[in-house]
Amino acid sequence: MTLVESIIAQHACRDEVSPGDIVMARVDAVYLQDGNTPTIRKLVDEHGFDRVFDPGRIAVFFDHAVLTPDRAMSDRLAEAEEFAARFGLRVYRRGAGISHVVALEEGWFQPGGLVVGADSHTCTGGAVQCLALGMGASDVVAAMVTGTTWLRVPGTIWIETVGRPGPWARPKDVLLYALARFGQRPFLYHSIEWLGDWISELSLDGAATVANMGVEQGAKCVFLPPGAGRPENMVALRPQADGRGQVLRLDLTGLPPFVARPHSPLGAVGLDEVAGQEIDYVFIGSCANGRLEDLAEVARVLTDTTVHPRVQCIVTPASLPVYLEALKRGHLETILKAGAVVSPPGCGACIGTQGSVPATHARVFSTMNRNFRGRMGNPEAEIWLGSPLVAALTAVLGRIPQPGELI
Q1: Residue 241 has pLDDT above 90, yes or no
Q2: DSSP secondary structure of 104-119
Q3: Which neighbouring-strand residues pair with 116?
């Protein structure tokens, strides 16, 4: 069996499962986020549920609106607080960080585990071979109450990386390239297993970026191979001997940085095709690229320089541990002295519910995972996506850099 089949079979108490099977599987943990907890609370109340399967294995993360922008949002968060208290759920209060990042830091994601999250980027858990599934409110409520969820077993596609990217390419660039190269169609409701030397050499931070954007690829779930900084009980990934499933080769040899043009992460091109584009606003953060490794690179670029006077630059650490370690190492001091604004840990400006909403017709360069129209709260703004390296240089130059300007 493939890895996803093995995990599902174990949690469904079956000897084996096959793609297309419909099964009921137990869950190891469930987590919600403040943006949809009121909807979940409403469903619970409508159906008269008065208990959950295990309060210690259900958490509510207050990450989407850390600094509430208005009374309506504050009221929604108060509802979420009341709901969590009523059922004795674990609470990660505002400023603790983004759910998927904290779940990885605190071990909610474990190799071979099955976790349901009320957010599509729950797939981040695949960085440590956890079957981490983002689901809608109804399915989340069912998992909370029963401790189980229904699943259609997905087929598996392997992506085998060949060669190594150029010196300025980062995991974000590889994902943008993969989206441009393959699109989403091959991966819809499939499990992706990544293979190859490059993917195995990634740090945990880099691996999390790859897993995080599995949902942008259209996948049901994503799994990365064992690597540095990851749990010892991860299993080696390899295509099935019987040939079931498809192996896609992704040649990374000399890959340059990639940038996704508005208004889709699928519209990525090499840096040279968009270099020189003026930018008004740079956002560095999100569950894709708000980790310590990302902030360290931003600080390196911003050392002894300043943000362009025309550019607004917002940097949002993805979790409190990331924030504190970046503070300890001097990264945040460097970023602040360069003229950027550092906001509290959380989703920040990514979804447009807090932080700085871009102006009409503004051009934004962001490290987040999506650039759909209106993503940051203004449908009349343009959002370009790229790595923290390119984002930091863009903030300094006021434009997307030329390949020869990369440092």
Answers
A1: no
A2: HHHTSS-TT-EEEESS
A3: 30, 133
pTM of the model: 0.97
The Cα–Cα gap between 362 and 364 comes to 6
Separation between Cα atoms, residue 353 and residue 375, nearest integer Å: 10
Residue 135 tokens read as 């689901």
Residues 6+ apart with CB under 8 A from 42: none
Give the integer Cα–Cα distance in Å for 406 and 44. 52
Q: What separation in angstroms does the CA of 188 have from each of 7, 191, 215, 222, 369? A: 19, 9, 9, 12, 18
Domains recognised in the chain with CATH numbers = 1-255 (3.30.499.10), 260-405 (3.30.499.10)
- Distance, CA of 353 to CA of 232 (rounded, Å): 39
Q: Going by C-beta distance under 8 Å and a sequence separation of 6 or more, which residues neighbour residue 224?
A: 126, 127, 128, 129, 194, 199, 202, 207, 210, 211, 230, 237
Q: Is the peptide bond before 263 cis (omega within 30 degrees of 0)?
A: yes
Q: What percent of the chain has pLDDT over 70?
A: 100
Residues whose CB is less than 8 angstroms from the CB of residue 306 and which lie 6 or more positions away in sequence, other chains included: 338, 339, 396
Beta bridge partners of 246: 157
pLDDT single digits (tens) 262-277: 999 999 999 999 999 9
The upper half-sphere exposure of residue 279, i.e. CA atoms within 13 Å in the direction of its Cβ, equals: 32
Alpha-carbon distance 248 to 2, whole Å?
16
Separation of alpha carbons 22 and 153, rounded Å: 6
pLDDT at 354: 74
CA distances from 398 to 109, 310, 336 (A): 39, 7, 17
